[in-house]
Write a structure and sequence with these properties.
Pfam families: DUF2795. By secondary structure, the protein is mostly helical. The chain is built from 4 helices and 2 strands. The chain has a two-stranded antiparallel sheet with strand order 1-2.
Length: 71
């Protein structure tokens, strides 16, 4: 995810109810301003199919490089 900070993903998923599966997460991001070709939505689509319990699990799955981890 070099094209955006994870905060962009967090903003799109701000009011997402957990637990949520990958398809629900991607759909929610698209409804909240993420176009289907945005870097954030592409990163979410690349996550393994699973049910995620919180935003931390999503962050772990999108493959942030160490220098892109939020402080």
């Amino acid at each position: 995810m070099t094209e955006l900070a994870f905060t962009d993903v967090q903003e799109m998923l701000e009011d997402l109810d957990f637990p949520a599966d990958k398809d629900a997460i991607v759909a929610h991001a698209e409804r909240n301003g993420g176009s289907t070709d945005s870097a954030a939505v592409r990163a979410l689509r690349a996550m393994p199919p699973a049910t995620y319990r919180n935003i931390s699990e999503i962050r772990s799955s999108v493959g942030l490089a160490p220098d892109e981890m939020p402080d």
